[in-house]
């Protein structure tokens, strides 16, 4: 196996190089075995809604790429979210967590759905998702927003604005308001019902995501934009203070700061001004959905969640899309690209990752589209058939010059 150190490529033709590790900071990826195991154990979590449809496609792609590249996988499929609630009464069963922790990497579809929307917080599918992220310690979530040339016209932005966009959005994933205490319901002094959450970041949480982001920016174009709300929120004030301090260790990276309201506007006005962006949990959640539409669809954005050690978690950025579940309409590209990220960042299998990315571009070049990215003159297919076309492209191995995600 090569190594699972991060590989990032500058869109301005900086050479492709392995990520340098600094001894003072935690490794950015999880598996850095001296020699590869004879077989990788992969935990598959289809989840709910469109989850099973898209995971089925991604699994087939992994199996084929594995057989062509001489990589063996052992898959274990487990329950999480609504499916787990129905079967076991909890959204993250112990068996699921244990399987995930003991595997080389985890590939997840999505969780959630109308059926469980009114459940109490601890019995919501989404609570299982937050728990597994926390338990795996995957604090750094890479969400690449890449506009693929054949999809420029699927973007909701004008061609000249969307063409060439290549942003790496880094979202802090295990802190902030989704986890902060205190939270809950209560009554105020007027006897009125209230709901409350806490946006909270400790220095060590900011420092580790900052080091991670600076290293990613170093390997790309050396430009890092930190997005916060430091004009109002104390947690953001500390965030900005720590980023400014840590920037001293990365003189080759140009650090800028932007308030999140402006950033959300700038992403639509001129997305090409951004290269690497880093932000907290909730802002990253929202900005990545926004960035996805620049690329044509939320069905195009994959993600990799990495920690200091242990398996990484790989999942599309979208949810379980209950409105189209079971109708063979889901776009599987985001999950297939998440499988490519699993190979690159989780296992260090760069060649196999690139093979998948090339297959995605080749499938797009051959004109195949699900409804969310369809435009006149292209071929509208379902999730299943798109999966079959991706397999053909994997097999033919055309070097499509795909971006690295
Ligand atoms: N990582 C996860 O498991 C996530 C789970 N959720 C959960 O998913 C459920 C639905 O949430 P929504 O807010 O509707 O967000 P969503 O991302 O599931 O769907 C938003 C819209 O995008 C479309 N869409 C999403 N993925 C698509 C794909 N691959 N191909 C084609 N169209 C796609 C949907 O059909 C829908 O119209 C909720 O229960 C929510 O909590 C939401 C976001 C992330
Ligand atoms: C449960 C949510 C935080 C999931 C989500 O929207 C996401 O991770 O993008
Ligand atoms: Mg989200």
TrEMBL record:
The keyword Glycoprotein does not apply. InterPro entries: IsoCit/isopropylmalate_DH_CS, IsoPropMal-DH-like_dom, Isopropylmalate_DH. The keyword S-adenosyl-L-methionine does not apply. Binds 1 Mg(2+) or Mn(2+) ion per subunit. Gene3D superfamilies: Isopropylmalate Dehydrogenase. It holds the Pfam family Iso_dh. Residues 41-390 form the Isopropylmalate dehydrogenase-like domain. Its cofactor is Mg(2+); Mn(2+). It comes from the Eukaryota. One of its GO terms (molecular function) is NAD binding. Coiled coil: none annotated. PROSITE patterns: IDH_IMDH. Pathway: Amino-acid biosynthesis; L-leucine biosynthesis; L-leucine from 3-methyl-2-oxobutanoate: step 3/4. It catalyses: (2R,3S)-3-isopropylmalate + NAD(+) = 4-methyl-2-oxopentanoate + CO2 + NADH. Its EC number is 1.1.1.85. One of its GO terms (biological process) is L-leucine biosynthetic process. Keywords: Amino-acid biosynthesis, Branched-chain amino acid biosynthesis, Leucine biosynthesis, Magnesium, Manganese, Metal-binding, NAD, Oxidoreductase. Belongs to the isocitrate and isopropylmalate dehydrogenases family. Catalyzes the oxidation of 3-carboxy-2-hydroxy-4-methylpentanoate (3-isopropylmalate) to 3-carboxy-4-methyl-2-oxopentanoate. The product decarboxylates to 4-methyl-2 oxopentanoate. PANTHER family: 3-ISOPROPYLMALATE DEHYDROGENASE. Homodimer. This is 3-isopropylmalate dehydrogenase. It comes from Glycine soja. The lineage of its organism: Eukaryota, Viridiplantae, Streptophyta, Embryophyta, Tracheophyta.
